[in-house]
Amino acid sequence: MPLFHTCGPNEAMVVSGCCLPKPLLVPGGRVFVWPGVQMIQRISLNTMTLQIQSDHVYTQLGVAISVTGIAQVKIQGQNEEMLQAACQQFLGKTENEIRKIAQETLEGHQRAIMGNMTVEEIYKDRKKFSKAVFEVASSDLVNMGISVVSYTLKDIRDEERYLKALGMSRTAQVKKDARIGEAEARRDATIREAQAEEQRMASRYANDIEIAKAQRDFELKKAAYDQEVQTKKAQSDLAYELQAAKTKQKIKEEEIQINVIERSQQIQIQEQEIARRERELDSGIRKPAEAEKYRLERLAEANKNRIVLEANAEAEAIQMKGEAEAFAIEAKAKAEAEQMVKKADAWKEYQDAAKVDMILEILPRLAAEVAAPMSQVKKLTMVSVGKGEVGVSKLTGEVLQVMQDLPRAVENMTGVNISSKHISNPRRI
Fold this sequence. Notes:
Layout: E1 4-6, E2 11-17, E3 24-27, E4 30-32, E5 38-44, E6 48-58, E7 64-75, H1 80-90, H2 95-115, H3 119-124, H4 126-141, E8 146-157, H5 162-350, H6 352-375, H7 392-414
């Protein structure tokens, strides 16, 4: 026995048994089943077509009729509650048994709806009847897990020829309406003929009125045209006189134009005479003046060129002088550099003695520089506090004190103690 079971979308599997608190519902799919401890059952989900036949059922007014309806029903597999209810109701039953139960239920509801409606209502409003049966049957079959897909009223008949009588009554009514309609049509035709004749006469009278209006308009327009012709004729006569006056005026204007032309020619002659005299003036006065102007311009340009050349020569001289001075400075610098080199070599040879000798050479100048500010003082006031020297000796002592502190300063700057050095040249000491 296989462990896996499958089914199509039109079928549902129900697994029950060990390890399952409630049956497992599988609509269209596969499921694993333990052989011997679990059981699998199947239920069809196919749509079932039912023909609901209700014969000789009395309607609300006591008329017996027979009705045939067509219903489409199926077990709902998408709703788990409905599928579970269907399993409780129909599991283990064949499709025919399920079909029979649904058909009897629908037939009972169809009979109930027929008893609550009249024949006319069922006959004339089949949609209302079908809707009532569908709603009532659906609410009942849903508890069984069955859904009503559709319901349609197929046929209505009776054995008492009640429906035929309704048709005959309706036929008679239609015939009566036809005769009435024919009479009303003849009446309307007569009325319309009279109205058409009235309209024709009204049109004729209106046409005569329009003809009279046209005649009147013609006479009025003819009179207006005659008046216009007379006016045009009078205007033509006046236009002739006006044209004659204009012609005379034009002749006068031509004469004036001739005089203007003569005057213009005289003016041109005078202008030519003026131009001739201007040419004489140019040849006699303006040309010599322009020649003199040109000569002066040439002289000024030559003078400018001379000044430029002199300036260039002076610049070159200055440049050459600067180059000579630069060469002299360079030569002097080279000589001083050689002197410094030789002096540095001598200092290397004599070492500390050279340094001491140089310092002793500048000591007199240093003392002079220390005392120089005092030589510029015009008036000096000295105040004594009762201790030490007073007067000029005090001032001299200050200068000597600065000189005494100098060796210590030199030692701090150069590391040479000039007080302890033995100088070979006693003249400088």
